[in-house]
């Protein structure tokens, strides 16, 4: 099989879909890997490194898309990349379609087979290809929030850890999943006063055990959000409904009630955001202000640390990429129902129920798509 690795073109996105070690694995399995020139430059992996691993270097993205049977990326394809996709071609990357109707329409129109990292599952119902980026985003959210809290950056001028004789900053984390837990770990490590909201009592118990009581756990209700939002210096939105749009848990009225210079960091922005006032931003212009509250809503947060993020991501995507290459997408998905859960679009149909429901498409299950194929 021919596997293509194009250079990422989203604003200030430096990650790459495959590192040279992955290329070597696939070439050793008898496949041909085509990597766009400078695709790995953002993480210090040069064309020579890819050539040494056995890759062929393409000078233009068109050459990658035209040649490849399987395209491996990091971020969702931009619209002109979607236009280069074709029927029978497999795309393996993050998609987040529920919050991106234009991309969904373009993928449906292309006829390609699009498998989303974020909906591939594991036996324990976790999301193994989303987990490493959730870990990175959770940790980064505190760094970004601490920076935004500085007065020169529009914040309240609060040091999260405080100093002797001065109270530490208050951090509210909405969502106790992977991203929220890692955000809480970073915030607690800095010495902040941390509260985690979640709607799963078993998960709250787990978090309490993890932190040994160093963070406060609260069952998430509208009243709890009403009370905690107004006293918080930094609020982290880390809510996830796999494949679906994030629920809006923080309203415009909540934002108006917050203290001037408070900061909101919306990790859920890839899925539309969990704050009503959220809108996507980039690393070039990461923040904006609504009602004197600073919003950080970068849609590719892990791209700020592309080397760490790329290695963390490709560690978990490589086995699945190998399966797709070695067996072809039909057999690979038939062998592995967890990989089959990643099928979002195939041959003009939407194959993930939450996406179909959110965007108004007819739903064709992955099982039925496989039978039809």
Structural summary, described in words:
The strands form 2 sheets. The protein has an 8-stranded mixed beta sheet, with helices on both faces. Strands 9-8-7-10-11-13-12 form a 7-stranded mixed beta sheet, with helices on both faces. Helix 1 runs parallel beside helix 2 and helix 6 packs parallel to helix 7. It folds into 2 domains: 185 residues, Rossmann fold; 169 residues, 3-Layer(aba) Sandwich (Rossmann fold), CATH 3.40.50.720. The chain is 38% helix and 16% strand. It is globular. The protein is of the alpha/beta class and 373 residues long. Helix 2 links the parallel strand 2 and strand 3. The model has no long low-confidence stretch (mean pLDDT 96). The chain contains 14 helices and 15 strands.
The strand line-up of the biggest sheet is 3-2-1-4-5-6-14-15
How many structural domains in the coordinates?
Answer: 2
Using the alpha-carbon principal axes, give the shape: globular
H/E element sequence: EHEHEHEHEHEHEHEHEHEHEEEHHEEHH
Largest sheet: 8 strands, mixed
C-alpha Rg (nearest Å): 21 Å
Task: Please tally the helical runs, counting DSSP H or I stretches of 4 or more residues.
Answer: 14
- What structural class should be given to the helix and strand makeup? alpha/beta
Q: What is the CATH C-level name of the largest domain? A: Alpha Beta
Overall mean pLDDT stands at 96
Task: Spell out the blueprint of helices and strands.
Blueprint: E1 2-5, H1 20-28, E2 32-36, H2 47-53, E3 56-58, H3 61-67, E4 70-72, H4 79-82, E5 90-93, H5 101-110, E6 113-116, H6 131-148, E7 170-174, H7 178-190, E8 193-198, H8 201-211, E9 216-219, H9 222-229, E10 234-237, H10 252-257, E11 263-266, E12 287-290, E13 293-296, H11 306-335, H12 337-340, E14 343-346, E15 349-350, H13 353-359, H14 366-372
Helix pairs in contact: 1-2, 6-7
């Amino acid at each position: 099989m021919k596997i293509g690795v194009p250079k990422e073109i989203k604003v200030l996105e430096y990650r790459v879909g495959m590192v040279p070690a992955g290329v070597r694995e696939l070439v050793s399995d008898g496949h041909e890997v085509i990597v766009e020139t400078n695709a790995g430059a953002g993480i210090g992996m040069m064309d020579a490194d890819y050539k040494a691993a056995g890759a062929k270097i393409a000078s233009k993205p068109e050459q990658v898309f035209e040649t490849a049977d399987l395209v491996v990326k990091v971020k969702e394809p931009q619209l002109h990349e979607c236009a280069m996709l074709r029927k029978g071609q497999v795309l393996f990357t993050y998609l987040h379609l529920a919050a991106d109707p234009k991309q969904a329409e373009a993928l449906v129109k292309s006829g390609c087979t699009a498998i989303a990292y974020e909906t591939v599952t594991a036996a324990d119902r976790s999301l193994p290809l989303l987990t490493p980026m959730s870990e990175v985003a959770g940790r980064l959210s505190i760094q970004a929030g601490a920076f935004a809290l500085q007065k020169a950056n529009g914040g309240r001028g609060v040091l999260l850890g405080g100093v002797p004789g001065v109270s530490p900053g208050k951090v509210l984390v909405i969502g106790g999943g992977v991203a929220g837990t890692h955000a809480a770990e970073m915030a607690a490590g800095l010495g902040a006063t941390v509260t985690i909201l979640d709607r799963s009592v078993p998960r709250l118990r787990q978090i309490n055990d993890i932190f040994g009581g160093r963070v406060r756990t609260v069952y998430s209700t509208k009243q709890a959000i009403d009370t905690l939002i107004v006293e918080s210096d930094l609020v982290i939105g880390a809510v996830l409904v796999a494949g679906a749009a994030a629920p809006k848990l923080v309203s415009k009225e909540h934002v108006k009630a917050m203290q001037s210079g408070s900061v909101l960091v919306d990790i859920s922005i890839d899925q539309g955001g969990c704050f009503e006032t959220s809108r996507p931003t980039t690393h070039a212009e990461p923040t904006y202000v609504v009602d004197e509250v600073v919003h950080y809503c970068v849609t590719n947060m892990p791209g700020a640390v592309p080397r760490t993020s790329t290695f963390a991501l490709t560690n978990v995507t490589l086995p699945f990429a190998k399966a797709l290459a070695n067996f072809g997408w039909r057999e690979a998905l038939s062998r592995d129902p967890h990989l089959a859960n990643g099928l979002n679009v195939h041959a003009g149909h939407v194959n993930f129920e939450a996406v179909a429901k959110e965007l108004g498409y007819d739903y064709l299950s992955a099982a039925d798509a496989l039978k039809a194929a």
